[in-house]
Amino acid sequence: MYRWALVLPLLFLGGLPAAEDNPRAKTDKQADQKKDNKAERRPLVDVDAFMREYDRNKDGYLSKDELPEWLHHNFARLDTDKDGKISKEELTRGVTYLQQRRRPSDVVIVLVEMSDCDECCTEELQRAYEFLSKLDKNKDGKIDADELKAGREMLVKERVERILKRLDTDRDGKISAKEARGLIKEHFEQLDTNKDGFVDRDELMKAASARHAEEKSKGGDK
Questions:
Q1: By the 8 A CB rule, do 184 and 159 touch?
Q2: Which of 11, 33, 92, 197 is the 20 to 30 Å CA partner of 98?
Q3: In 3D, which of 183, 133, 167 has the Cα closest to residue 22?
Q4: 86 versus 221: which is more confidently predicted?
Q5: Domain segments of the chain: what residues?
Q6: Cβ–Cβ contacts within 10 Å for residue 199, how many?
């Protein structure tokens, strides 16, 4: 099983340069760390204000019915003493559960709602629509697990072909250590599983498949 954090950024972003090849990455990382430190100092939610807003009967506790609907699934996590109501202390301890999380698919909604350029928005939505339509092989208006798997394999294959086209300068169908750049160069030995001194199409595909299987296995163990 491949244990290096390579395949997703490499194959799905088209092969980014390694951190040491990109001085700006360190500067950006430092700036992000400063932002994160500032964010940690700010309270996630004003618990007192939350209690005032949702404690309709003013008994100092929140029942499940008093919570907003999008928080109902977290009621059991907040109600740590299992008495059927949430105290201010429980709310404070479980404040992270009060963050309304976006679903990945909400990006489409945000694109429609927040775009200040309808023509640009239309172009991006059309691109998403065409891609999803391509996944729906049987044209039943739904995307099932098999179609999703086929779509993922298609994307990985396309990324691999682009990487080969960019790095395989002598057009022999494989990447030598001399031709390798960025993350492929950094992880060349791990990718070259047959130790022939080259990274070929099959090895890139196997690396991508192994990484996906590993991530899926981790998710299944939770």
A1: no
A2: 33
A3: 183
A4: 86
A5: 47-98, 102-135, 149-222
A6: 29
Element (H, E) at 174: strand 174-176
**For the purposes of burial, counting CB atoms within 10 Å of the CB of 40, is it exposed (0-12), middle (13-18) or buried (19 or more)?**
exposed
CATH number of 149-222: 1.10.238.10
pLDDT at 111 over 60: yes
What confidence score (pLDDT) does residue 174 get? 96
- Domain at 47-98, CATH homologous superfamily: EF-hand (1.10.238.10)
Instruction: Please list the alpha-helical segments (H only) found in the chain.
Output: 7-12, 23-41, 47-54, 75-78, 88-93, 106-114, 118-135, 145-167, 182-186, 188-191, 201-220
The distance from CA 1 to its chain's CA centroid, rounded to whole angstroms, is 21
The answer to whether residues 9 and 159 touch, using CB atoms and an 8 Å cutoff, is no
